[in-house]
Amino acid sequence: MISKFDVVLFLKRLIVFTIIVSNNFLNAQRGVRIGYIDMNVILDNISEYKKSTKILDERIVQWKKEIELKKMQLSQFQNQLNSERVLLTPELIADREIEINDYANEIIALQEKRFGPNGDRIKQRKKLITPIQDQVLVIVQQIAVEKKYDFIFDRSSDIVMLYSAKNYDISDLVLKRIQIKEKIKARNEKINALKNKN
After folding, report:
1. 35 pairs with which residues across the strands?
2. Whether the Cβ atoms of residue 65 and residue 39 lie closer than 8 Å to each other
3. Do 60 and 133 meet the contact criterion of CB atoms below 8 Å apart?
4. Which residues, other chains included, contact 77 with Cβ-Cβ below 8 Å and sequence gap of 6+?
5. Neighbouring-strand partners of residue 154
6. So where are the chain's domains?
7. Residue in 150, 153, 156 with CA at minimum distance from that of residue 170
8. How far apart are CA 80 and CA 14, in angstroms?
């Protein structure tokens, strides 16, 4: 005996199956739409990205100077020990060598802290640049939905794209939308600045 529940369940499954089959049929009829962007081109044309990159580069220069100063200081310690070696007892020489090794290890730790795989450079890059990349991805998703793209690839990433026709490149469209948002933001900032003056 078949219950009402079994009939309802069968009908639901039949409807879902019909939707899937018809959707696949429609997709097969229209073909797959593919687009791509070049994230590097887009980011290089965004003023906020340029500012963030400049800030990061300035910090990297400061960190390198900091490390170089410590290396120079280490070299001075080593030269001083070498020049005083004949005057010092073996115990004092051993103590100084331990101090110099500790200082050298501090420099190595600082280099790791600044430029290691989990260092400040990587963290700062994520902090400064990730919001901009997220903005680009949101716009890419909006365009994909509006233009009914099935796939959008990033030409600058690890995915190998051996050939692509220019008509599938939506980088300019993404860049235009970002520039429009930047103009609106700048206009709003000017309006707020004028309001605050009065």
Report:
1. 152
2. no
3. no
4. 96, 99, 100, 103
5. 37
6. 32-197
7. 153
8. 87
Whole-angstrom Cα distance, residue 70 to residue 80?
Answer: 15
Residue 155 near residue 36, CB atoms below 8 Å: yes
Long-range contacts from 50-53, C-beta under 8 angstroms, 24+ separation:
52/128, 52/129, 52/132, 53/128, 53/129
- Tokens representing 160 are 């190998």
What is the C-alpha to C-alpha distance for residues 76 and 99, in angstroms, rounded to an integer? 13
Distances (CA, A) of 73 to 1, 67, 86, 97, 183: 91, 10, 21, 14, 49
In the chain the first and final C-alpha atoms are separated, in Å, by: 82
What are the strands, taking DSSP E only, across 102-161? Answer: 151-154
Structure tokens at 193: 């600045």
Residue 174: its H or E element:
helix 171-197
Block means of pLDDT (10 residues each) for the chain, 198 residues, are 56 57 55 80 86 91 95 94 89 92 94 92 87 86 84 71 65 86 88 84
Q: How many whole angstroms separate alpha carbon 92 and alpha carbon 29?
A: 85
